[in-house]
Description:
Blueprint: E1 5-8, E2 11-15, H1 23-35, E3 38-45, E4 48-55, H2 58-63
Antiparallel strand pairs: 1-2, 2-4, 3-4
Amino acid sequence: MPKLASVFDGKKFLWNGVLYETRQQASEVQAGYDKEGFETRLSEEDGKHLVYSRRVSAQQTAAGGN
């Protein structure tokens, strides 16, 4: 079972709880999260692809920082 949370670039991301068979499937889900204002990362574990995300606050977005 993958970790529920993981750190990428010093930032905490949460796994969406789904194991994807292909990178393409994970990338499609990732694109949807990106459109909704989430910061995302893809990961691979035991041949499965995972999507991790974190919400970027409106304050950070307005200031241009993450």
